[in-house]
Every structure is written in C-alpha cells, then in structure tokens.
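User: Can you help me understand a structure? I only have the sequence.
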Amino acid sequence: MVSRMKTNYINLLRILIVLLVVVIIYISHGVVKKKNSLENVPPNIVLVVADALRADHLGLYGYSVNTGPFINELGKSGAVVKNVKSQASWTFPSMFSIFSGLTAIQCFKKDYYVVDDIQLITEILQKHGYHTYGISANPHLRGHTAFVQGFDLFKYIESNDGSKINQYLRNNVHAKLEEPYFLWLHYMDTHSPYSPPDKYIRTIKPEITINSMVLDNCEVSILNELEIYKAEALYDAAILYWDNLVRDVYEMLNSESNVLWVITSDHGEEFHDHGGTGHGNSLYEELLHIPLIFSNRNLFPSSLVLEQQVSSIDILPTLLNFAGIDKMDGLDLEGRNIFSSSEKKSDFIAYAAAWKWEPRLSRTLRVVYKNNWKYIHDYTRNNHELYNLSTDPGEKNNLASKQPQIRESLCKALEAYYEENVNKYKFFRSDELEQRIKDRLKSLGYVE
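Assistant: Let's start by predicting it. Here is the structure, written out as tokens:
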C-alpha cells in the first residue's frame, strides 16, 4: 500500500514537472516574445513628422484648443520634450538635420542638393540590421534628394491628404515590414493649403464657412485679422485631422510590434506673430520651436516631461541609443542623447539658419542659442536681436542694445562656428525638378 502511494506520488510529480516545462516553453516562445521589455531587443522605430507643426498648437505644450487628443494620450505613455529647437524654418535643411544629426549650417547650398560623405539615420540603422521604410508627401523630400538613401522601400505620395499615406502603408508596406524596422511617415496635412475634412473644422470652429485656405510664405503679411483668424482655425482643424491619422497608424502597428513612437515636426508656422505668414521667412520661435514626443509603455512606464532645451540634431543620437548603437566608425554627430544623465543641462547651445537666396526671404539670418539666450543676426542688414527666452518667450523685447557683452559674445561664437563648418561637407546639385513638382510647390505657397 505504501509502495503504491509512493509510486503514484512520483508519477504525479513527473506529470507536474512536464506541465511546468510546457508552461515555461509556452511563455518564453509566446507571451514574452510578444511582450518583450526591449531589454537586448532593438525596438521598431516609427518616426512621424507633421510638416509645419508648431509646438504651441498642441495641448501637451499648453494650447487651450484640443487639437491633439491622441497625441496627448501618447505623451502620457512616454516622454514629452518641451523645449526643442529646429535647425531651420523650412523643410529641406531642417529634415537634413534630423536625419544627419548635423546643423543646418552644414546644408548651406541653394536649391536641391544631394549630400555626400554624410551617413543618414537610415544608412546607420541598415548597417545594424534594421529594415528601413519611408513614405513622404513633401515634394522637397523625394528621390532627387539624399533622403532616399538607406531605404529598403521608399514612396513619394503626391497628395496633401495624409489618408493616402495611411492607405499606402496599409496596402503596400504593412505586410512587408520586417523587424526590427525604422518607418518614417511625413505628413503634409498641417502645411498650407489647410484643407481638413469638414467635420474637423466644425469641431474646432463651427462658425468657419470656408474649408480650404492657402497661406503664402511672406516676410510681411498681406492678410487682415479676420483672414489670419480663419487660417489659424483651419490650421488647428488640420492638426486634429492629422492626430486622427496618427491614431489610425498606431492601431495598425502597435498591437503587432514593439514600437518606439517618435512624434515631431520639421519646423513651425507663423500667423502674423512677427508680421509674416507661413514659414521660411524668419527664425523666431513660432518657426523653430517644434514638438517632440517619445512613446513606448515598456521604455516609459510612467509619463516623463523634459524641460531642458534640446535641438533637433539630438533626435538621431537619441534614437541610435534606443537601438543599442553607441558608437560607429566614421560617424561625426553634433547632437547628443536627450536622455543621457551625463549631459549638463546648463551648457545647451544650438544653431539655426535661413538664407537670402530663398525667393521668400530678403535677408540672410543666423541664430545661436546659449542656455536661455537667443541671438539673431541679420547679415544682410547687419541687424542684431537678443532675447531672454525664459522671461520673453514671445521675443517681443529686443535686448541687443541693453546687453552688449552678451550680444558680442554670441555674435563671435556664431561667426566662428559658421566659418568652421560651412564648407565641411560636399554637396552636389540634383536633377532639374519636373514641372508637375514645381506646380505642386507653388500650390503649397512656395513662390519661385
């Protein structure tokens, strides 16, 4: 009797051990695979860029109009970087900086150029096993520029309606995504002409009777207050529509992949803040202050808000860090990892530029940020502007004459940096633009 009980006990123990082994195998190959913690596993990266989206038109940055309900949700499961400076006030140089980790001053060339001897984020990630995909609706970012370098699949969408990007992603890319992947989506919905679907206009401003408006890029605005009001209302409605498009992509991808979401913009937009409209015509904060949100529940189990100033050139090294790429031979980055605890918060410095050869601009401008100070030099007219952004975020009080020592110090630093870096890399002229692209650029407010 005792012997039989002992035998039954041993058999039961064996069964339990087998069941335990089966459970462990199931968990390790099933649940854990689907819900990895990103430890030792490179995340998929989705970089979403909303063209011409200024930071202060999102609730995460203090805006009172609910233009980004889904972006707000992403911010709650991630990190919101509150004080990010773009390198330029129009697309080509600003995106060059995001993709290369280099300042826009390095991109000082007229018209459309293809860079050489510069490794873009796609090329770096490719070398480390990433599969790279890109869909852009901006005609500045097509096959004639360097932005297609390093993509396994790239598509230019000739439409201002971001639903076409989502449709192409769903029908032509989604099934082809191989992990780990980098996916770049560049939307034009928040760029003039603002033409959001009617229901989004009604949500923002029910009294607005127009459903589309072109906002030209002008140094001096020709619009009256009512026209500016309508333009800004349509802009907000366009942001709300884009926010819904981001939600659609999130639902498409997030349940299947461990995705690090990165939401940002190339530059902002002006609505007569300093007398102009559109972008590319000045270097004030409405054009250089851009949003930046990182979201992933594994990486950011609780919401994080970063108040320190950073530059758009910091995006690339930050993403490389998340991807587990610390150093790479021949990689010369000016940016730094935003989340590095070793970086001092008091030594922030950044640059930006705009050039007279742009048809919309009558002057060459360069900017240097140093901690809370911002210095703007108009090289064409030799005018100086100096602002303390901690006390004057709207740049209304020019302190150039009242703080001559700070002005001169920043002026010398800016000049020295420019002279050292302006011809550091080679650039080559690309092919002549097709007429249809010239026509599309004109429809977007680019007066040639």
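Now, to help you interpret it: The first helix runs from residue 2 to 34. The mean pLDDT is 84. Let me know which part you'd like to focus on.
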